[in-house]
Input
Amino acid sequence: MRVNSAAHVRIGWLAGRFVSAATVVWLAATFTFLVQCLMPGDRAQIIINMASGNVGEASPAELAAVNAKYGFDQPLVLQYGKYIWGILHGDLGLSYQQHRPVLDIIAEQIGPTVILAVAALIAAWVIAVLTTVLVAGQDNMWSTLLSGIQVFLATVPPYWLATILLVVFAVQLRIVPVIGGNSPIGLVLPTIALALELSGFLGQIVRSEFTRVLEQPFVISARARGMGELGVRFRHVLRHAALPGITLSGWAIGKLLSGAILIEAVFARQGLGGVLVAATSSRDVPVVSGAILISAGLFAVTNMLVDLTYRIVDPRIKMT
Amino acid sequence: MRGVSFSLQAGRCLAIVGGSGSGKSVTSRAIVGLAGRRAHVHARQLTFAGTDLTALDDRSWRRVRGKEIGFVLQDALVALDPLRPVGKEIGEALRLHRAVASSEELERRVVALLELVGVPEAAVKARQLPHQLSGGQRQRALIAAALALDPRILIADEPTTALDVTVQAQVLGLLEEAKLRGKALLLISHDLAVVSRIADEVLVMHEGKVVEHGSADQVFQDPQHTYTRQLLDAVPSARLRGSRPSRLPAARAWKPPLRSQEQSPSTFPSVVLSAANLVKRFKGPDGVLRTAVDGISFELRSGETLGVVGESGSGKSTMARLALALDLPDEGAVLFQGRAWTTLTERDRRARRRAISVIYQDPLSSFDPRWSVGHIISDSLASDVESRDERYERVVELLDLVGLSPALLDRRPLELSGGQRQRVAIARAIAPRPAVIVCDEPVSALDVLIQAQVLDLLTDLKAHLNMSYIFISHDLGVIRQLSDRVMVMRQGRVVETGTRDEIFLNPRTDYTQRLLAAVPSLVRGGAANRSFSRV
Output
């Protein structure tokens, strides 16, 4: 293939992925809009109750004022248009509770959550790869033991693990602070708590593929050239074995984001978790919708990255 | 394998021959200490240039592998890492044994090695992935990787299997060159014709044991062991038709023919299938249309075998799919039994599909692995066989026809040997009493002995069931043995068509002549008669 056309294909592929990512976000936006409109209960009534703090019927005049302020009296199509238009301009609406733009509220809190999720993904990969490369394909006690540990980790709920880790390392051993805030040292326990479950999953998948690839003829070829065990494992086998794990990572990042919310609660960390819990319990629909939209966007972007990574690791796949 | 002894000398070639499962490959791997985790190797003596290899630890082994002994594994497509550029694989031995000082030197050496083995555009190919190279180029690259450090011993495990004849001749030439440069060459092969061209000494293995060991001349001219003689006789070659290369008698008395009277061929015009100006294009992964079959026409008369020969990519298999109407031509049409065939709708074709069957190279992938042999064959029976007992009787009869015992009825495909599987595939193909069977490389995956048996079976069946074959193969020996007429294909076009003798004794086109010249045939003469035709 000519270089020029290869570059064209790559740009075309990226453009195609952008369109499908945008479609995902648009569908999520439409869904959240419909939820807001069709949810039982009058939205104006909810807002008034939230502001006044008591539960009761508001007067028609009060309702009309709120409806006019938020535009609930306009036709649905117009509301939908305004909603989508707003999203395109970075306006996710106003929080019913805090009377501030939803985007600001989420922007303040999303950083620590994303950092936690990404740190956990990296940690899970490091744990899975190291244990696999060192132990896979050997019929010994370590291999069996590792496999058992991986299954255990993959099935244990992370919040339970988080609690155990917190009690052992923070309360008993006092190696790390109980409440770490946003300091790097405070990130250690939450990251491990979140990563271990995924490392179990990843490890199982990478390991079975690793064992299969170890027997392939090209591995014997490499050995016949005089390559040592570690060289064979890192230079040849790992690349093949990582492929199914990379595919899994797209799904994992979604799971890590939702898992992070629970972990934040356990470690009392700042993050999207607190905002979401508060917004859901008080029916602050714009904030919840905003969080859903942002997650959909993140998910679409990470999946694009995952596909791109897969294509770099496996150059056989053409960008079509 | 057990009790195998031999010695290798510089500038000489020792060949180990035998059918699959004879222990050839394990022997070669044991020499480099890579027989596998589950293998136990006991050797009374394994020395290399005076060094005792059995006493080596892992680290010392690594210094021998690649540097002193170059190993070319079977099947280059899987013996090269599919995710790494070919150049990286070739350079690996240089890097591992610290034979180069800089990455520039490494690159230079890799390109030089690729040029040495005759890969065109070496600098470009070095950066490509194995699947982007042709089969011959891959095999050369693999040999280049083994030659990288100029080892004293070169071990090649089936280096020419799965290659087209012309490419095969080139690869053999390459190995012979290495031998002339003073390498000790250990060649593992099931193909006696290949071995006879290059080996000085031959070791015949059967079921893990050495049954014959001697100079090439002695083994080929005066074989002592019956197994060696069987192997030699089974090589498809210029032998007259009607001889039975499998050396087995037509195993059984023939039952009354399966074909009933009203279907006798006399009711068809004598041409049973004809194709006119077939064109088929496929869209490649880059979106560019590629013409796989480019205006071919042919006729198949009833009772005849039309051999179709050509290198890979010549459009043979596409032609077969068009004849079967599994793909429809973009231009032109196929007539079957004198009536429209490819121009019909699938619904109209369906009723007549049973009159044309197919046998593939790899029957395993064409069987449902969960079905029993009985189920597979019964499924293909003509729909007029209704009662359970009658179907059972017919299946047993068919098994008998293809030389299989009814005891296999309940087996699954995976529990059968390669030869048995191909026989089941044949039983399935003849079950609906077809007028035509399209055989697409039906013996290419089989050992030479099994291959001879299956070819004999196909010949017998055709005579008794009055069918016609379209017989596709890249192996000219097989084509010559079976065909009445031969069609030579190249790049989607028909190069030449003629009777078997016209094509083989008096080829008109350059291409056919080149193809025939490249065929390794058994050389039973002395070493002096062995010369290489390099294409």
Remarks:
- Residues 47 and 53 of chain B are 5 Å apart (CA to CA).
